[in-house]
Amino acid sequence: MPFGVLYSIYHVMGKPLAIDICCGLGGWTDGLLAEGWDVIGFDIGNHQYGEHRYRGQLVIQDVLTLHGSQFRDAALIVASPPCQFFSYCAMPWSRAKALAREVEADIERLEKELALFKACFRIQREASDAAGHHIPMVVENVCGAQRWVGRARWNCGSMFLWGDTPALMPDYFHVKCGGIDWNKFNRGILKGDAFNHQVAKTKKASAALTARIPFILARHIAAVYWPRTLT
Q: Do residues 19 and 78 touch, judged by C-beta distance below 8 A?
C-alpha cells in the first residue's frame, strides 16, 4: 500500500504518526504503539525470526531512496541504522584497527559506511523543510559510532542516542535502563523477554534480537514527544 494511502488512514484516526527508519524488529515501534502512536517502519527487508517480527506497518524499501518530504505529516522520526561496521572497528583486534585505518583513508568507502546514518539526518531535514517546522528525530547506535559520526547526546547502557534526545532522561536508565542487565542483554539473554534461543542460533537473528531498542526506553521517547495538541 502506498505511503500516502497509509497516512490518510492514520490521519482520519487522529493519532500522531511516527516514522521508524531502519526499523528491524521494531524496538522503537513497540514503545510507540504502546503509547498510542501510529507507526510506519521502513527497512530494506522483513526481519522475522520465529515469533519475533515487526508489529507496525512495514514498508520494504531501501532507506537511501527515501525523500523526507513524504514524512511532512510525521510528528516524530526514530532510527536505528546498522551498527556492524562501527562495532567491529571498535574491537581491540589488529584486523579491526587495520580496517578502521583503511576506511578512514578511503573517502569513497567511508561515505559508503556512513551513508545510512547520514541518510537519517537528511530525511529529517527534508521532512522538516516540507512541514515548515522542525520534526524531532532520535537515532540509536553503538558507542563505537562516535568515532565516525560525532559524540552522542546520551546513552542507555550500550545504546547511544543522537539527534533530539530529550533534555530530561531518567537517571536510572544510565545504570540498568529499567532493571535490565546490559551484559546479559548484549549476550541475548534478557529476563522477562520472549527470546527464542533456538531461533537466535543464527548470527543474523541473534544480532537483530540483541539490537532491539529496550521497550522502556522506546516508550519514554514516545511519551516525551507525544504532540501537545493531542493531549
A: yes
Cα–Cα distance, 174 to 141 (Å, whole number):
16
> Using CA atoms, how far apart are residues 5 and 71, in angstroms rounded to an integer?
13
Using one digit for the tens of pLDDT, what is the confidence trace for 126-177?
999 999 999 999 999 999 999 999 999 998 778 899 999 988 886 645 444 4
Ramachandran quadrant class, 59 (left: phi over 0; alpha: psi -120 to 50; beta: rest): beta
Q: Where does the pLDDT of residue 228 fall: very low under 50, low under 70, confident under 90, or very high at 90 and above?
A: confident
Antiparallel, parallel or unpaired: β 17-21 and 52-53: unpaired
pLDDT over 70 percentage in the chain: 74
The single residue listed with the C-alpha cell 567491529 is 88
DSSP code of 133? Answer: S
All structural domains of the chain? 3-230 (3.40.50)
* Residue 139 DSSP class: E
In 3D, which of 209, 210, 218, 224 has the Cα closest to residue 177?
218
State the DSSP code for 56.
S
**Residues 135/145, Cβ–Cβ less than 8 Å:** no
Residue 154 in contact with residue 215, Cβ under 8 Å? no
Give dist(CA 170, CA 176) in Å, integer: 11
Q: Position of cell 498510542?
A: 36
pTM over the 0.70 mark: yes
What mean pLDDT is predicted for residues 33-56? 87
